[in-house]
Amino acid sequence: MNKKTKSDDDTKQLSARLGANPSFLNRELSQLAFNRRVMAQAEDRHIPLLERLRYLCIVSNNLDEFFEVRIASLLANSQIEGMSAESPALTAALERTSIECHQIVDRQYAILNQTILPQLSASGIHLLRHSDRNEEQRAWVKAFFDQEIRPLLTPIGLDPAHPFPQVVNKSLNFIVEMAGKDAFGRSTSIAIIKAPRVLPRVIRLPDELSPSGASFCLLSSIIHAHIGDLFSGRQILAYSQFRVTRNSDLWVDEEEVKNLRQALQSELQSRQFGVAVRLEVARNCPHHLAHFLLEQFAIAPNRLYAVDGPVNMVRLSEMIDQINVPALRFPPFAAGMPPQFDSGGDIFEQLKQKDILLHHPFQSFQPVVDFVRSAAFEANVVAIKQTIYRTGMNSDLMEALILAAQRGKEVTVVVELMARFDEEANINWADKLERAGAQVVYGVVGLKTHAKLSLVIRRERDKDGNGELRYYAHLGTGNYHPTTTKLYTDFGLLTSNQKLATEVNEVFMHLTSLTKPKKMDYLWLAPFLLQKEIIRAIHNEAEIARKGRPARIVAKMNALLDESVIRALYEASADGVKIELIVRGACALRPGVPGLSENIHVRSIIGRFLEHSRIYYFRNNLQHDVYLASADWMNRNLFRRVEVGFPVLDKTLKRRVINEGLTPYLKDNTNAWVLGSDGNWNKPKQHRRQKQYNAQRHLMLALGALAPSHTATHSANK
Questions:
Q1: Has 584 been labeled as part of a binding site?
Q2: HSE-CB of 70 using CA atoms within 13 angstroms
Q3: How far is it, in rounded angstroms, from Cα 116 to Cα 103?
Q4: 11 vs 3, 77, 180, 559, 577, CA distance in Å?
Q5: Given this model, what pLDDT does residue 271 score?
Q6: What mean pLDDT is predicted for residues 30-59?
């Protein structure tokens, strides 16, 4: 990427994003408010205990990425012309986010130590510190340290011949202060210990040492207890675990790079050592040691976090995965299968009859995999085209594409190499696909290919016996990823509509040939038309309202940040359009302001599953236009990504999207949060006789296999 466009926002939008314009809410604070909503799940006593712990881990993971990307971006913007480090707006923005982050982290560890761990202990699950372990447990831990941990540690005493070591992003490390002299009679006082990543961060003690349930120790606790064994003859004065978070954005000079894949492979090696943006230490870390680390990493003091527990709470998910107590987890849920697939049969013949709408994770993603796998084996299929943004390390769909290429099909795959934190997996899949004979391209340099498209081209006979090519397509709002399809809510459309599928093929032609796409009647393609079409549809509703007719917009997305779209919504609100927005994460629109946005209502749903669908509904004089899309209403999605919005044309499926993707979430009074004009999110008050309604639970019962007696319906929200 070019340095001038590396930030997620254009320079011209920076002042508004930093809070200079009162019509817009601050992006960073809004993103942190989302994490507060997720953290509130950990305090909900109706949620199973292990799931509450998982929510705390999710918050930690979210904050890691927030520092790696958002804070790193703000700091990088200090170099933008006219926005120096002394800029009042930038300084104020960094200070506000710093205060909020510290408050979130403090609350997070308070929940862990005062609520979650004590309740787990009462349930027979113990996370033992050294002081909690009895003599037998200490003896076992000591033997484990000597046999499994100590041989892998390499303490580094700092002196001119042993400078401060390179510290990998988000790795576990220890700083130790010692008295006395080393083996050579010198007064070296500081040592650094790096915990190898091959070591588990959570160790389960043998069951015979845990008669009342299950006992665990953190790797950091074990090393802390035996640090003295690593420095014989020295007196340990103080020590602390620490972790450094670094800027993890990859940078590739699009004007100079010749081979994006090779450039990224080289860049990935240096990602672990980007500019340091945050330091975490143990709460009892002496001030002078923390100050020493801040100097080593050139980190400002307000980005120091002294935590009362493990510096990487995400690692506690390893403990969750080792505990098999169903009562402490969400009840099992099995995704439903659409009726068309229950009877088997040829998927292409089924699609000739009618389109198929899939609502994940309430309905299985398997039909999409079967769609591609069937194409791999189907003799009449001549070509398969696919976009890949995130797909994971293990993917049946990718294996099906490889099989198709091996069987002689023309397979074209557009792999997005710049999908943050999935670059390595995507590079590996690109290599395997190429070796199988597929044509692999990497989209458009400088634009991430975020569209979710799959196309199958089949040679068929018409009624006169003549051969013709017929298109079948899958368009989705979510990634082709085996894990997220079970955790994220998304819609996917399988269609044989030739007009729609032909335009899907035009998108692939555009991505591979880099030619200007043809005029499209159905698809809204970014970066060319998506924003214009969204604003046109908003203006159309405003025009309808000005004529005195009912006008309504309902939209669901992950984030709402684009200024032009927000202004269009403000104008439509002033004209009388009723606007209801379901925004899971960051939202810069300020609702409910008289004269500006009094007809706009914004809510967020935090439940068992992460709400990921993008749905745009426009009443349009009872035409009820429904679009599904891969894009949020963010500047980056509308102008720096290849995105596709697509209409749901079948009236029955259109009603399904409204009745499953919008209406239940507008009725939800269990998992919903409402955004006020002051920028604060609050749970709506429930009337005494008001019946609780949970959208995700409703959909699990309607589309999947969840026993009606189960009532817990909250989620993972990264």
A1: yes
A2: 21
A3: 18
A4: 12, 8, 54, 19, 31
A5: 63
A6: 97
Burial class for 235, CB neighbours closer than 10 Å (0-12, 13-18, 19+): exposed
What percent of the chain stands above pLDDT 70? 90
In angstroms, rounded to a whole number, what is the distance separating the alpha carbons of residues 540 and 184?
81
pLDDT: which is higher, 533 or 74: 533
Confirm or deny that 420 is annotated as ligand binding: yes
- In the numeric block, the tokens 């919005």 are attached to 645
612 is in an annotated binding site: yes
Is residue 488 a known part of a binding site?
yes
CA–CA gap between residue 570 and residue 515 (Å, rounded): 36
Structural contact between residues 641 and 526, judged by C-beta atoms closer than 8 angstroms: yes
Strand partners, 587: 560
pLDDT tier at 338, thresholds 50, 70, 90:
confident
- How far apart CA 529 and CA 525 sit, in angstroms, is 5
What's the mean pLDDT when you consider all of the chain?
90
Look up residue 198 and give its two tokens.
Answer: 């091959």
CA 470 to chain centre: 36
Taking Cα atoms as reference points, which of 606, 565, 609 lies closest to residue 585?
A: 606
Instruction: Please check if 239 is assigned to a binding site.
Output: no
Helix axes 423-436, 260-271, angle to 10 degrees: 150
Catalytic sites, residue numbers: 450
- Write the CA distances from 577 to 574, 618, 626, 647, integer angstroms: 7, 10, 17, 22
Q: Who's near 149: CB < 8 A, 6+ residues apart?
A: 199, 219, 222, 223, 226
CB 599 within 8 A of CB 579: yes
- Alpha helices by DSSP H, listed for 362-521, are 366-377, 396-406, 423-436, 498-513
